[in-house]
Design goal:
alpha+beta; four-stranded antiparallel sheet; single chain; Rossmann fold; eight-stranded mixed sheet; about 25% strand; Lipocalin
């Protein structure tokens, strides 16, 4: 009996396994090209610990698969540990892995024949991004990078740092026996987060040679220091004769006769082997996606207000028929590039985490994701906030003119810089039925505090670089106050007439006060607004309960805003 397919649900998304990209490659072929080692993380619905998105949850299983056939065998980690980023030794007898319990990441080796895991040194590894954690010099010597002074690995520590420190300091204050004074001075050097050192470790003798980053380095360490990073965002292979276009190349033998791909297809996630023109499925997960109705996607061209040719991605509700016009959500992020050669998280219905935009399509909304190139202010006297509509409005027009979207029911939404853009667009245009701003900045004059570091005696000077990169503001507020104000939606709040939903975590490095100020201003003006605060959450929601709650609120908000629309917005 055939299983009835259903629209994508938040439970489907929380059940997906996500192969992380920013903690080293998760696949490696052995030197003989016969065995594949890979780390398989748990889904959010299976996980037992959270707020570890940078390392895929930190509960990865280490699997080894014979390419000639058979099921993968698990090499069990010690109790409470997960594995990341396997690298085979040159003789194929060991696999180097990063092991973690969520509070540390240590270098380890797994002896393949016995399955025994050996932690090499109780020092924290530096998170390498899309580069490998390890490189074998020979059959016994492994090179890796450690945090200086065994400091906590930044992206394991940073999201909970402020909350845990606040609990400790509040208890000290309430006890009344210990001062909680924290002194900062203008002479204090700024904190540096990139401090690390290299290690060359002999796995037979246990000898560990430490090599400073800025000192004399052996050639092998120099080679490791300059190791190549994978593309980020990762690049899909695109249309070809062999594997699905959404596939990512994740491993290959040196001769190029065997290539491993990861394909997050609509109906499942598959690990594929391409060898001599033949494609074999080695492993499959996320099979529950086969029961989910797919959301059609297409690319549409549009021309920006300044005459530039661009593209938008359109995600349509399941069951879309020719002639259907849908309410729509425009998902905005300045700098967004729209192309099928990059795997953006909004592309696929089979995408884990907090930003699966196919949930909007599953609820009946078309999703418009426009390219939003960032123009150089030197070529345009207008402010960045004033130029956002140059891409967004023509993209909406293109989707309407193509017959997919009901112009009277278009909403705008975004996260982080996209949340700021959402508020700025609501202030600059009147084409949107409502707006949803997540983790948004609204007042650029007050965005310098980082709650995660509030309870440390640290000074950080990152504000200037962040302001210039994100908002094209190459100076301090006292040097150009008018520019800060013109790019702050809070100071144009009186022009916002559409309803606004704000969502923000209280441990976000974008201070939650940014959304609280905007909410207070909208409320004082008598506008319809709602602020949802997520205690304990940082910049991106990571608790599955909060991710599910946020999506329920977003869908309910959009449905209520569309249902209550008795007339087109005033600008239409």
């Amino acid at each position: 009996m055939a299983i009835m397919q259903h629209p994508l649900s938040i439970d489907d998304v929380l059940g997906l396994r996500s192969f992380p990209y920013l903690c080293g490659p998760q696949f490696d072929l052995d030197p003989g090209g016969q065995r594949l080692a890979f780390c398989l993380p748990k889904s959010l619905s299976e996980a037992s610990r959270f707020f570890l998105d940078a390392i895929g949850g930190g509960e990865g299983e280490l699997l080894v698969l014979d390419l000639e056939g058979g099921t993968p065998s698990e090499l069990p980690m010690p109790a409470g540990l997960g594995a990341l980023s396997p690298v085979w030794s040159p003789d194929g007898s060991m696999i180097a892995v990063a092991v973690t319990d969520g509070s540390f990441i240590h270098p380890a080796i797994v002896h393949v024949d016995s399955g025994k895991t050996q932690i090499l040194i109780e020092r924290n590894l530096d998170l390498p991004g899309p580069r490998p954690f390890f490189e074998w010099i020979d059959d016994r010597t492994l090179v890796f990078e450690m945090t200086l002074g065994n400091a906590p690995t930044l992206w394991l520590d940073i999201e909970k740092r402020g909350a845990l420190a606040s609990i400790a300091q509040w208890r000290n204050a309430w006890n009344g026996r210990q001062t909680t004074a924290s002194r900062l001075t203008s002479e204090q050097p700024a904190v540096r987060w990139d401090q690390s050192e290299f290690a060359a470790f002999d796995v037979q003798t246990g000898e560990c040679r430490i090599v400073a980053r800025d000192g004399e380095q052996p050639r092998s360490v120099q080679r490791f220091a300059g190791r190549q990073a994978s593309d980020y965002p990762p690049r899909c292979v695109g249309e070809n004769d062999w594997v699905p276009p959404e596939s990512l190349k994740v491993a290959a033998d040196p001769e190029g006769r065997k290539t491993i791909y990861l394909a997050r297809s609509d109906d499942a996630t598959r690990v594929l082997l391409l060898s001599y023109g033949k494609v074999t499925t080695l492993f499959e997960s996320d099979a529950h996606m086969g029961d989910v109705l797919a959301s059609p996607m297409t690319l549409l061209p549009f021309t920006t207000a300044t005459g530039g040719p661009e593209s938008l991605r359109l995600i349509l509700p399941p069951g879309h028929r020719a002639g259907d016009r849908h309410p729509a959500v425009v998902w905005v992020y300045p700098g967004m590039s729209v192309t099928d050669t990059l795997l953006h998280r909004q592309n696929r219905i089979n995408e884990a985490g907090a930003f699966n935009l196919h949930l909007l399509a599953a609820s009946g909304f078309a999703v418009i994701v426009p390219a939003m190139p960032v123009e150089d202010t030197g070529r345009d006297a207008r402010e960045p906030a004033e130029r956002l509509a140059d891409c967004v409005v023509p993209a909406v027009d293109a989707a309407v003119e193509a017959g997919f979207v009901n112009r009277d029911h278009v909403h705008v939404a975004g996260h982080s810089l996209g949340g700021w853009a959402t508020l700025a667009l609501l202030a600059e245009t009147d084409i949107f039925r409502s707006g949803i701003a997540m983790a948004a900045t609204s007042n650029l004059l007050g965005g310098g505090d980082d709650v995660r570091l509030r309870y440390d005696d640290l000074c950080s000077d990152d504000r200037a670089a962040m302001m210039q990169a994100n908002y094209d503001l190459p100076g301090a507020p006292w040097e150009m106050p008018e520019r800060y104000i013109r790019n702050s939606p809070l100071f144009s709040v009186e022009t916002i007439t559409a309803p606004v939903l704000l969502l923000h975590g209280d441990q976000d490095y974008v201070p939650i006060a940014q959304s609280e100020q905007m909410f207070s201003a909208l409320r004082e003006l008598g506008r319809r607004a709602e602020l949802v605060r997520y205690w304990g959450e940082a910049h991106v929601l990571e608790s599955p309960a909060n991710i599910a709650d946020a999506w329920r609120r977003i869908i309910a908000w959009l449905e209520a805003s569309s249902a209550s629309a008795l007339a087109p917005p005033p600008g239409l």
